[in-house]
Amino acid sequence: MTRAIVRFWRDERGMSLVLVGISLMAFVAASSLAVDLGMLLTARTQAQNAADAGALAGATAIAFNNYNDRSTTGPAVQSAVHAAQANVIMGASADGIAKTVGPPDVTFPNSPGGLPNRVQVNVHRTSAAGNPLPTFFARLFGVPWVSISASATAEASPADSMTCVKPFMIPDKWIEKSKPANQTFDSGTDTYIPASQSGYSGYTVGRDVGTLLTLRAGTGQNINPTFYYSWKMPGDIGGNFYKDNIETCNHSFVKWGSLMIQEPGNMVGPTVQGITDLVDQDPNAYWDASCKCVKGSAFGSHSPRVFPIPLYDPQDYALNKQNGRTAEFHVANFLGFFALRPQGNNVSGYVTTVVGTVDPNGGPAPLYAFPVSIRLVK
């Protein structure tokens, strides 16, 4: 009897079945980890993409459609929701059953500076929302569903620098106090409030988008709202550099406050020819007054006929001239401009919105900068 028990105890027959069973359990567990974790990570990335797209679309709508409308049917909320829903999360669009994002998921937190210029979008596939992600192997271990969520915040922040700026400049707007009004800036009488201060007197999106401007070549030293002066841009290589910078994009970054040196000589001809060549690149684009936007462009929303014009500080220019110093032009702001085909020697176009950039090492942008930078901040 004792020998039989010892033999049974030492008998290794059937151990392979035990090892196979244990290995199979380990394999299933590893498969669960690999497949379900990979699915979870992919879904999380896709959800983040949806949140990012929604936040950027919402911030763009705040900047270019309606800054004040935060309602559920307003352009900011609707743009954010539609952009997020256009993204696919594990084979299902974000507008499927138990939507992963809707109007309640779009909020408007303030920036650290207190400005209401941010849009936050939350995307969720969770048990609480009724749309969790089903698992594959993990359900064998009692985990049939997992929840994921993602959040993104974008900001329509004031921009302090621009690229593709054209080589001519006009004065920023001032408060005319001369009586009778003479349409020239008179230092000591008229008032200019810069974009860095409350009560800014210059061009703004709310007041001026859609305005038709007809610019004439400046004469003498008078500061007139419709007079433009030519600018000797950075990187001058001679030849037709001035006209080339109108037809194409000068990729130099021009910052708020930069000094601009006037281009010597009569530049009316190169200016008009450069604008004509620029219009010929996108001849079917036109201004739609109903939306105050450009339509019909072969370049979509990036028509080359839309570009920034630098605005110079009229007060600074006038004081330098008054004190006998060389009159200097400093960038006071930028203006979005949609160019029309020139008529004679004048340059005409509509004031439009424009996207700028933020130099992280350039200090704070002016509070009332005309261009904005759309960027993700969280």
Most strands sheet: 7 strands, mixed
Helix fraction bin: 25-40%
Mean pLDDT equals 81
**Would you tell me the structural class of the helices and strands?**
alpha+beta
Radius of gyration: 31 Å
The total tally of domains equals 2
Shape: elongated
Stretches where pLDDT falls below 50 for ≥5 residues? none
Strand and helix order: HHHEEEEEEEEEHEEHEEHEEEHEEE
How many H/I helices?
7
Tell me how many strands there are: 19
How much of the sequence lies in strands comes to: 15-25%
From the N-terminal CA to the C-terminal CA, the straight-line distance is 76 Å
Describe this structure in words.
A hairpin with a 7-residue loop joins β17 (329-339) and β18. α2 packs antiparallel against α3 (75-85) and α5 runs parallel beside α6. The N and C termini lie far apart (76 Å). The longest helix is centred in the first third of the chain and has 50 residues, at 15-64. Strands 9, 10, 11, 13, 16, 17 and 18 form a 7-stranded mixed beta sheet that branches. The chain has helices spanning 2-10, 15-64, 75-85, 205-208, 241-247, 268-281, 314-322, and strands at residues 88-89, 92-93, 106-107, 118-125, 133-134, 145-146, 148-158, 161-162, 168-171, 212-217, 227-232, 254-255, 259-262, 286-288, 293-295, 306-312, 329-339, 347-352, 372-376. By secondary structure, the chain is an alpha+beta fold. It has 2 domains: 10-157, no CATH class; 161-376, no CATH class.
